[in-house]
Amino acid sequence: MTDVTSAPRELRKGANVAIRDLGGELGGLTVFLDSRGHDGETIDADVSVLLLDASGKVRSSADFVFYNQPIALNGAVHLRDKLVPEPDSDEAAAGWSSDVVTLELDDVPQEIERIVVAASLDASTGRTFGDAAAVRLRLQRSSDAADLLVFVIEDVTTESALVFGEFYRRDEDWKIRAVGRGYQEGLAALVTEHGIDVSEEAEEPEESDSPAVTEEAGVEPAPAEDVIAPPAPPMPEVLEEDPGAATPATPAKRSVSVRRPTRAPRLPADWNASIPADDGNDWQAARLFPVAGIGSGEEQERRATSALLAVMSMVREFGAALTGRCGAPRGTITTYIEVPFGQDEEAYRPDGVIQVRRGTREWTALVEVKTSTGRLNVEQIEKYVEIARARGYDAVITISNELAGGDADHPVAVDRRKLRKVSLHHLSWDQIRAEAVLAARHRGVADATQGKVLEEFIRYMSHARSGMGGLGDMGPSWVKLRDAVKSKTARASDKATGEVSARFDELIQHLGHHMTGLLGVEVQSLAPREAPDHASRRQQLADSGLMFGRLKVPGAVDVLVVGADLRADKASAAITIGAPRGDTRPLTRVNWLLRQLPDEAKDSIRIEAHMAGPRAVSTAALLGKARQDPSCLVPEEQREIKAFTISLEVPLGSKRAAGTGTLIGSVKGATTTFYADVVQHLRPWVAKVDG
């Protein structure tokens, strides 16, 4: 390998260099497309990659990597999450942001001769790359994050799409060329030049008073084969597609939609599949992480720590996701277990240590782990913070099944004065599981073997004996509070009321992590956190037995409101969607909503139509009745309908633990079922533009 100096090679527009001359002949490369605005303002660009054959065109739409399709060639080309500089850093102050692509050039099939790396801006914003203060391409070696090359693009003006550079084959070697070519017409013009037809978006359906509408009249049909459609997360069989396989009898379509996703992501088809029945044999599949032999809680914690830290260091995508949440740079991860330290003439042994190296920088964190019902100890955590501060380490990370309820950032209240030089972070097993599922099944793991290791770790976490199951019950005060609410003797000042209210906030976080794993997007819990609101919610729980929280799903029409009514013994989920505006009749607005709800949606779903005006007036009906007679939701005097609230109620379990017949199980079931039946099908009304 050629020696590489600390300074990266600088390229000018049109220049090229062989990858092997940069010290990157192994093919593992990370491409950064950096941009920044003026006065610290960021430029929100979208990166895309085109894989071209000898004709200079893509072979099919599978060779187009962008925000609707982030992986190609079994992970050889992978669009990563946008990289935002660390807070308070010089890069953050300057407004830099980076889009990231990883390339494994050795895994690119021979018929791919050029790899074009570009970025584009959303046309609706009216912005161009000329609005940027600086635009550049950087190249790193993935194995050690060594900077190899930088190309600063200086002559951009009104372009809304820009080719930064391209990788191309020459005499069996890969080279990179600094391009810097722009397109005023945007991403559509760029991809059309390289063999992709941009599909026209479907027209909005004509308004109709009839609820019986065919696919042609407004229900979005399934996308044609090989046409990229916005809604669904990529399925494994799509990610494993081999573009180099024999050409099928029917040529693959190249038509794509470059519209950004605006619909809620869909649940996988088997989200509620049951476990297959026992086939009568006693064979058990071999486990990479066995649960046999787990006895004491100490052994459970030791195995959980060792398995987690080993997988973090082995599976780069998973390790980077977790350490990134704790403030670490993206780099090479090394992990250790039970490292001894001496402090104040005493011996201490944290459960683990994580080190991340990027160039000359080294980030170190001490790790404390609890499993099952183990609780974090404030004295122990504060001692680890002292050890970290004395040695110049960066962070202390705690891991347990606890979730920070109420208005806390951490399950344990640590003296904030001790955290001036050492940051404290908490990762719940729920959060870790969600990150593992995101990496393994949605974002993708470049190395197939590492992907199997991560799947085995998910399997281990899901076993009851692992102690990594996440939120397990509603807390020791649950039964007391439940009975007090039913007898109307609960008070807002009672300790049990506050504890159960905070535990319900934890349940909302648990639901967010659960839905993140199912949908493949970051679902954010929005349980109210301000102290005055907590007081009012404790009062509401004591007075009426009501608890609620909110989930924000990217692409959904609104936040998803999740609730539990202890008096009525009901769990609920609800969402509100704005009605069509303009000169449309109330019945037309009702039918517009009914068309979006699938046939399998339960008749017991409730629809409430809210009227415009100063007074809170509404009509309501169950979905079954509304389907038979949509006019039952039409208000008297044909008043304007401004919005609809759709909700589902199911029986509320009364048991403390998780599972069937419990509050946790019934709230989770109501949320997931409602999402499947309603939320993922809803699209906001969009006004037509004449001409």
From TrEMBL:
Superkingdom of source: Bacteria
Protein name in UniProt: Stress response protein SCP2
Organism: Nocardioides zeae
